[in-house]
Amino acid sequence: MADNVRFTLNDKPVEIVGISPVTTLLDWLRDHRGLRGTKEGCAEGDCGACTVVLEREGRCDAVNSCIVLLGQLDGQSVRTVEGLRGAEGGPHPVQTAMAEADATQCGFCTPGFVMSALAYASGGGTTDPDAIHDALAGNLCRCTGYRPIVEAMTRISGLAVEPPTPSAAAPRSRSMAVDDAFFAPRSLNELLALRAAHPEALLLAGGTDLGLLASRERKPPKAVIHLMHVPELTAISATPDKITIGAATTYEAAAPALIEAFPALRAYLSRLGSRQIRNMGTIGGNIGTASPIGDMPPVLLALEASLTLVSQRGTRDIPLDDFFLDYRKTALAPDEVIQSLSMPRLWEGETFHCDKVSKRRDQDISTVAGAYRVRIRNGKIEDARLAFGGMAATPRRAHVAEAALLKDGFAAAIAAVESDFKPVDDWRGSAAYRLQVAANLLRRLELRVAEPGRVLEVEAL
Fold first, then answer.
1. CA–CA distance, 350 with 175 (Å, rounded to integer)
2. For residue 135, how many other CB atoms are within 10 A of its CB?
3. What's phi and psi for 314, nearest 5 deg?
4. What are phi and psi of 402, to 5 degrees?
5. Is 65:25 a contact under the CB 8 Å cutoff?
6. Torsion over CA of 289, 23, 11 and 55, rounded to 10 degrees?
7. Within a 10 A sphere around the Cβ of 379, how many other Cβ atoms?
8. Hey, how many other C-beta atoms are within 10 angstroms of the C-beta on 180?
9. Nearest CA to 363 among 155, 133, 90?
């Protein structure tokens, strides 16, 4: 017997009947519930006009409803701008702060800002400008009225926000199947059985990429296997030697472990995507998509990451270096899934840095991404792993440049970049530009190694 998706919407339980589970939450809210405060701006998770809040595990997470599928919400609790109420039914304090700061102009984007502000306040947001900027990076104001919006965010910092109410639709203890189109296993064995039985089904983790099929492309997938309820795929473990992160772990959940082990990732992850994207997007999804311009693969290549792949046939470990075969092609077999990825911690004498170059600072895909792990002993570089994205059909290490660096130093490594990569021209940057950027990033790495205390970030000058 087929299941129906059940979740809580603005404190009331709902059950989805007769509507495809691969419908976007945004379309369902507007077309089937008449809740039109949530807007469509870009339909790809960039502008934030569609922001709603998921209330889960005692916290509020802002997410883009335009790329969240209904099936992903089973057992969860959703709040839209229509679900905000203050004392005695009046405006919510966040809404009051926005109004008193004159933080609205045309109003189209305002509901999305309000929901991002709600999530920020509920998480104990402060008046720190950088924290406010990060919280608002996923919301665009078409009237350029950011100053009063930032003022409103300052007013709500430290605001006492009631904790989310428990979801009326309790999470299932068994796997869910909706019309042979949406499967949500609750164990690794169930997942592997579904993967073997439905090799044509698309694997869905956070949906920040796959969700575009239903939103922007209007071609929702015919069959989906949702990974986020499988405990083995969301586990994080750390030892003195390495960290291991489940493939379906969100960036937000993985960030503390990653930043503790590799501090350079703090700034990098803040530019990987907005909070809305990091609350849903997963590292395993970024790897499995195999985009040549994905932000995390160059980082993981430099950090010597390995993957654990599982199927009903067994388990195998594979270096990430061997996983990417060609453009959007990987070594993942049709019956396999990525269970986790592991990275060794930095050895004594090792340093790690990473850079992202894009047309916009926030909310943009990389033109070139670079990551570098270098081991130095007695003033001499003994080992180096240099990896780049946006320079080839796959994320790749710069093997020729690595060898040149070890033999003859940075000048030789910079000159060797052209031997490693033959990038293409596209609207994000020409081949010549990409080669120059990669060379310049290695020059920046040289300065970092030579003068560790030197400030090299443009925005910090």
1. 44
2. 23
3. 140, -165
4. -60, -50
5. yes
6. 10
7. 5
8. 11
9. 133
Total residue length of the chain: 461
DSSP-assigned beta bridge partners for residue 224: 182, 202
The first and second tokens of residue 52, run together, are 């709603």
Please tell me whether residue 433 adopts helix, strand or coil conformation.
helix
Cα 363 from chain centre: 11
Host H or E run for residue 437: helix 431-450
If you count DSSP H runs as helices and E runs as strands, how many of each does the chain have, helices first?
15, 20
CB 157 within 8 A of CB 101: no
Contact 439, 445 (CB under 8 A): no
Calpha distance 307→20 (Å, rounded): 33
Distance CA 106, CA 315 (A): 55
The first and second tokens of residue 419, run together, are 């031997």
Compute how many other C-beta atoms are within 10 angstroms of the C-beta atom of residue 247: 27
Distances (CA, A) of 185 to 59, 61, 208, 222, 232: 24, 23, 20, 17, 12
pLDDT in tens, the chain (461 residues): 478 999 999 999 999 999 999 999 999 999 999 999 999 999 999 999 999 999 987 789 999 999 999 999 999 999 999 999 887 788 999 999 999 999 998 999 999 999 999 999 988 889 999 999 999 999 999 887 799 999 999 998 877 666 555 555 556 767 888 888 899 999 999 999 999 999 999 999 999 988 888 888 888 888 999 999 999 999 999 999 999 999 999 999 999 999 999 999 999 999 999 999 999 999 999 999 999 999 999 999 999 999 999 999 999 999 999 999 999 999 999 999 999 999 999 999 999 999 999 998 887 899 999 999 999 998 899 999 999 999 999 999 999 999 999 999 999 999 999 999 999 999 999 999 999 999 999 999 999 999 887 777 755 43
Q: What is the pLDDT of residue 160?
A: 63
List the one residue out of 380, 351, 385 whose CA is nearest residue 453. Answer: 351
8 Å CB contact between 372 and 350: no
C-alpha distances in angstroms, 262 versus 16, 244, 268, 385? 43, 13, 11, 15
Q: Which residue has the tokens 């530019």?
A: 271
Rounded CA separation 459/436 (Å): 21
3-state class of 337 per DSSP?
A: strand
In the structure encoding, which two tokens stand for residue 383, read together? 């080992």
| Two tokens, residue 380 | 């001499």
Look at residue 213 in the predicted model and tell me its pLDDT: 86
pTM for this structure? 0.94
Q: Which of 209, 402, 423, 203 is nearest to 295 (CA)?
A: 209
The answer to whether the CB of 233 falls within 8 A of the CB of 288 is no
